[in-house]
Amino acid sequence: MSDKDHLIIFDTTLRDGEQSPGASMTRDEKVRIAKALERLRVDVIEAGFPIASPGDFEAVAAVAEQIKDSRVCGLARALDKDIDRAGEALAKANAGRIHTFIATSPIHMEKKLRMQPEQVIEQAVAAVRRARRYTDDVEFSAEDAGRSEIDFLCRITEAVIEAGATTVNIPDTVGYNIPDQFGAVIAALRERVPNADRAVLSVHCHNDLGLAVANSLAAVRNGARQVECTINGLGERAGNAALEEIAMAVRTRQDLFDCDTRLDTTQIVTCSRLVSGITGFTVQPNKAVVGANAFAHESGIHQDGVLKNRETYEIMRAQDVGWSENRMVLGKHSGRSAFRSRLHDLGIEFASEEELNAAFARFKDLADKKHEIFDEDLQALVTDANLDAANERVKLVSLRVCSETGETPNAELVLAIDGTERSAAASGSGPVDAAFRAIESVVESGAELKLYSVNAITSGTDAQGEVTVRLEKGGRVVNGQGADIDIVIASAKAYVNACNKVLHGSHRAHPQGADV
Prior knowledge:
By secondary structure, the chain is of the alpha/beta class. It has helices spanning 27-39, 54-66, 80-89, 106-113, 117-131, 150-163, 179-192, 212-221, 243-252, 268-279, 300-308, 336-345, 353-369, 375-389, 431-443, 487-504; strands at residues 5-6, 8-11, 44-48, 71-77, 96-103, 138-143, 167-172, 200-205, 226-229, 259-260, 394-402, 410-417, 420-427, 448-456, 465-473, 476-484. Helix 5 runs parallel beside helix 6 and helix 6 (150-163) packs across helix 7. This is 2-isopropylmalate synthase.
């Protein structure tokens, strides 16, 4: 990387990103995303919070075992039981890190922890020392550092570095900071902490005021050399700093930044789509870098300028982040070899020939209905197959919907519940509403519909529709997804998928304070 400093990219999509309501991921889904992040050449992958639940422990352990080129991290409160659990989960990691934290702002120490500042320092130091039993790569986070007193922040930073922390993270946990102010905090720590040169200063910014990326970049300009971020800016509340925006801002403005990442940025769009497909959180068209309109030009003046010289209106190349018009388009005559090869290029692998055969059969079925199959279709197809396989107590067998002008739409369907088929019919204000009512009359989930979202996967009237359904029951939120060229069928699949999650009843616990 020439003489530029290395800016470490710490991706927390699998941990903080998963804390978005309804974004919970299965172990296999976490592994898929982790492998995509590894291809992106992310330095550190925070795989989860091992103490949160047995499922999260297993997911962190699975990621730790399968990822070889990126460092795998597990989160732990500054408690012995958390740290020990994280150490166990990371036991098979090629390179592991324990990330421990405790709150440092006056309001958190007084109202949440009910601890005195000296007690907080003592517990932070003890946590770092315990984590060092498992690994020499220990990160400490001062939760709510953005609202902490600078003198106390300097004291605890010095203490944890002395105890063995190799990275010290300064989170803007509630998204309260302003770029100039936040950059000044990092500058003050570098100047005032005597042993600051023995650890990497990191930042983890939330987007409550829409400033997560700006605050992160201000910190980098003032000496931070690790940024904690997520794909698509996914995360608690308004989300985190978006990895793709951080990476491309630093790379595009090398005249201002004396550092750069080691990312293979051509993998960004693939990662974005994978995370969006698995979590059900669609990317808005005007989203920077990865939105569908990020490199689109509608204005005639803009189009004319770009045709004459791309740099008149484009500050980075679409190909550099993974957009490309030169994609292989598959169709009904494409064979297994081309299918497997394209999925391999997209980072999708199958554990067995049986899984490949099932996916290929789905591909052929789709190709009979849709003339051209694009990368987005393939990713949706594989995600749809995984959705069917996970916790599937309820399965959509058949659906018939009638909707005509002046008449009330109605739906008739057959569902298989635990292998037993049941029929139902219902009317509604529209065909989708009728289908949902028919499903609910059989499943009786008792959940409330909180979100219904439709996204066209590709262009054209034969495009697959990708539907996200969000249900809430008893304070628990789940997302369901479905894809089909028939939007009503896609909607029914999404509702059934969400119902399966409600009925499965598994719930990832988030111990208080996990929002670093």
